[in-house]
Amino acid sequence: MIGIYLSGTGNTKYCVTKLVKLIDASADVVPLEDEFIIDKIKRNETVILGYPTQFSNAPYMVRDFIQMHASLWKGRKMICVATMGAFSGDGSGCAARLLKKYGAVILGGVHIKMPDSICDSKMLKKSAEENEKIIRKADEKLKEAAERIRQGDYPAEGLTIFAHIAGLFGQRLWFYKKTAGYTDQLKINQDCVGCGKCAKICPMKNITMENGRPHPGSKCTMCYRCICNCPQKAITLLGSKVILQYKFEDSSNLTKM
Ligand SMILES: Cc1cc2nc3c(=O)[nH]c(=O)nc-3n(C[C@H](O)[C@H](O)[C@H](O)COP(=O)(O)O)c2cc1C
Ligand code: SF4
Ligand code: SF4
C-alpha cells in the first residue's frame, strides 16, 4: 500500500498520512509532486489517494494527474480520500469515477471534515478552538476508517448516486468554471518583498522569480499553499485580502487562526 496526496495547507497530508500509517505503519506516503511518484505507485497494488475538495470537485491537478498517467490505474485498488471544510457531496467520487474509467478497482471513499483552507474570505473563518475540535473529530473518523479498511469493510462515502447528485447540484454545477482548468487569477500585491518562498513551495511550479519579483503563471491549482505561507500576506486568489493564514503541519503545531 502507498498513500499519495495533493495538499495545499497540510490537511490532506495529515489525514492521508495518519490513515495509511494506522493501516500499515511501513507504507510510504508521498505528495503528487514527488519526482519518483510513478515508480512508487507501480510498486504498490493498493493506493490511497487524498486531495482537498474544491467547489465539490477534485482539484484540477489531481484530475490531470490521473488522466496523464491513465495506464497506471488498470487493475489497481484505490481508496479515495477527500478532505473538506464543510460539504462536498461526492468529493471522493470525483476522482473515483475517473480512476474507474481507466480500469481501477475502487475499494472505498472517505470524507474528512477539516478546517477551511481559504484564507482570503472573511466568511469562512473559524476560531482556533473550533478548528481544534474539527481536527479531534477528524482523528476519530480516521481511526474508524482505518479499522474498517483493515477488516476489508470499506467506507463508501461520496461514491453513491445520491452523493453524486448532492455534489453536482450542491456546488459543482454552479462553480464548474472555477474548477474546469488551472487558473491565472493569482494576485501578488505591493507588500511582496521578493523572498521567493511562494515560488519554492508551489506544487505546480506556477510562480517564477524574475529580477527578484514573483510572477504567477496560468497553472495555479488553487491549493492556497503560497497564499497561506507568504510572510507578507501579499498573495490572494478568491478574495482580495488575506484575513489570517492557515496551515496545519501536525496536531501539535496548528497555526492559530
Ligand atoms: C479553492 C477552494 C475551494 C474549496 N471548496 C470547498 C468545497 O466545495 N467544500 C468544502 O467543504 N471545502 C472546500 N474547500 C476547503 C478545503 O477542501 C479544505 O480546507 C481542505 O481540507 C484543504 O486541504 P489541504 O490543507 O490539504 O489543502 C475549498 C478550498 C479551496 C482552496
Ligand atoms: S512569498 Fe510573498 S513576499 Fe515572498 S516572494 Fe512570494 S509573494 Fe513575495
Ligand atoms: S500558485 Fe499558489 S495557490 Fe496556486 S498552485 Fe501554486 S502554491 Fe497553490
UniProtKB/TrEMBL annotation:
A Pfam family of the record is Fer4
Q: What are the residue boundaries of the 4Fe-4S ferredoxin-type domain, all occurrences included?
A: 184-212, 218-240
Does the keyword Metal-binding feature in the UniProt annotation?
yes
Keywords noted in UniProt: Iron, Iron-sulfur, Metal-binding
Chain segments annotated as coiled-coil in the UniProt record: none
Keyword flag Cell division: no
Q: Which GO terms describe its molecular function?
A: iron-sulfur cluster binding; metal ion binding
Would you tell me the protein name for this molecule? Iron-sulfur protein
Annotated organism of origin: Roseburia intestinalis
